Amino acid sequence: MPGLPRGTVTMLFSDIEGSTALLSRLGDGYAGTLQAYRALVRSVWSRWDGAEMGTEGDGAFVVFERATDAARAAIQVQRVLANAEWPQGEHIRVRIGLHTGEAVPDGEGYVGLDVHRAARVAAAAHGGQVVVTAPTYELIQHDMPADTIAEDLGGHLFKDFALPLRIYQLTNADLTSSFPPLRSHGSASSLPVPPTQILGRDRELGDLHSLLDRDQARLVTLTGAGGSGKTRLAIAFADARSGTTLDGVFFVPLAGVSTGDGLWTALGSALGLDVDSPERVIGALGDRAPLIVLDNLEQIPDAADVVSMLLSRAANLIVVATSRRSLQVVGEFEFAVDPLAVPTTDDSIADLAATPAVELFCRQAAMAKAGFSLTEHNAPDVAEICRRLDGLPLAIELAAARVKLLSPANLSTRLGSVLDLRSDAIDRPARQRALRDTIGWSFDLLAEREQQTLTRLGVFAGGADLDAIGAVTAMDDSDPLDAVAELVHASLVSIDDDPRGRPRVTTLQTVAEFARERLDADDDIDAVRRRHAVHYLEFARRFGPQIHGPRQPEAQQRLAQESDNLNAALEWALGDVKLDRQPDRGRLGMQLCAALADFWSVERAVPTASHWYPRALAADTVGDTLERAQVLLGLADTVLWIEPRSGTTDPSRPFIEESLAISRRLGDPAATSMALSDLAEREVWDRHLELASDLIEESERLARACSDPVALSFALVRRSEIELRRDNGTAALAAVEEVRRIALSRRHEAAVS
């Protein structure tokens, strides 16, 4: 095609598959067969205005000005060849590839990169097959013969070309449509192949697809704690998109990268580009639309700048990032990757087996020990291990590997510190060979202030509200929300609303254990634990008195929610310490027990109360205090649950009498009234009604004198019991009616306030 102007043309390359073997079989007859073949195909090229640029052996390079003419010619050639008769019953199978692009005239032919692309595409096809690139398909898709079928073969990589081409196969009812995979350099994907199938992430995968398909997201950042499975989920998602992503999917591992320049280099390498500068990487991407997984971004300070430039300059690019913190760039969709669901305590074995955390444990255990399976015998221990590990995939995999040495029962017993779980697998990143290393990686990326905050959060048990965090971390006068915001951003803690809508900070058990380790090694540990205990003493003093009031439900809920923290405070105050050297700790423990006495009584928290009351009484050496009197009354009620009365023997009476004596010495009318009421109750049990009546008379008088509605209500209830024993229903009813009026009055006051 001499003098052909420079422009866009459709280029067709073809050659005979297995021509060398055909020559061997036909011998001297091969030359005549090749001549007949060329005449046949040239007649088709000519019919559709194709210009043959040259031949080499049995190959041909033909150029068409119209893509539809090239496609029709290719289909017709395959039809003609399929119906032709050849010597010795042979079949000539030709592979044909079409690509539309920019061609540069060179004498009587064409040169240019698109010429080479067309040749590479044809060489990847199989005999009898017609394949076309996406640029060609876009030109012919609305103008193909009715019987022509186009099948999307996805993106493919070709020699000497970094970025992939999307390939379509053309066929019709007369031609074969089943062929082996193309002989390309592979599909347009550099994803690593995980050794096992992903488990328990169907919902997350569906949500990610929705973000791209429904919300048109171009940047999705998978965030979550170390070991939560972000990378595994990103790979599974990218793999699922590989068949529909125009220009393929690419995986960029970044654990060893710490700068933006390093990120650009890693990007270029993953894309197969011999370039590393931003301009050259973006230029190579052009208007292509690959999906790129940027794995492990949190340690790169300027990662957000790189990603922002990529998205703004490569308009069709989609980025899926994994990081323990979001990038916080415009257009980012943050996708939190939670640990796997764990079983509840009452699940059946069938339910347990279907729980993602248990399913993962069992699969990994079976890989470590052939024949392992979930049974009625080991199911409770497997479930407990998964709960203990928060459903964290990395932790479960590390634990399950130990099944080759320990049964689930022994493993559950010997689990000890989950931070000590370690893997010997040589292909795990160093930061993932032990849970301590995984969390330590995130910790080391924090600024000193945030490291100190996380360390001090180690004092809490079961989470904490923002007031507690502000009081205990004692960083400065700033909003406590600011103190934990960076930790939330780094996926080390989370903030959720409690049942009443108040924000509450929680951590995975693995992170909490790491923080406690750091706290135990901190020189400031005693000061932190003291602030923690003082805060929860004030908390108990605020809500404890409300147990016998109109706000009882809220008080019970708040105190129950903080039970773990209250017990942690008591452990510090009354645990194994030299209390004679720190008497203030024993005093604080006594005050805390007194503040919780009514709550423990209403909750029937006998094990907790019976554990702490004796310790508090032994540790507090101050002497007569109202708190001691309250704890003695609480202990009196508690011992009856453990050691019931036997005949006239009452193990609780000595504690009541001591409490009464202290209250009298202190001259406190309300405390004295409460002790008298409890003592009167014991006299009723012993049928000493007259003595009981005298005690209640004094109790009522003292309660009325100090206007204490709780003490008076208790005295009146005892009065009603005594009068009923005396068969004096009128007096008993009057006492109950007065209790009712007190309760109604208090509810009214609460409503008004």
Could you name the key traits of this structure?
753 residues; alpha/beta; 8-stranded mixed sheet; 16 strands
The average pLDDT is: 87
Poorly predicted runs = 1-5, 748-753
Characterize the largest beta sheet: strand count, sense, and whether it forms a barrel. 8 strands, mixed
Estimate what percentage of residues fall within beta strands.
Answer: 5-15%
User: Gap between N and C termini, in Å?
Assistant: 97 Å
Let me know the number of strands: 16
Category from helices, strands and their pairing: alpha/beta
- As a percent range, the share of helical residues equals 40-55%
Shape: elongated
Helices, by number, come to: 31
How much is the radius of gyration in Å? Answer: 40 Å
Description:
The structure is a single chain. This protein starts with 6 loop residues before the first strand and ends with a helix. The longest helix has 24 residues, at 729-752. With 753 residues, the chain is an alpha/beta fold. The chain has 31 helices and 16 strands. The strands form three sheets. Strands 1, 2, 3, 4, 5, 6, 7 and 8 form an eight-stranded mixed sheet that branches. A hairpin with a 2-residue loop joins β2 and β3 (59-64).
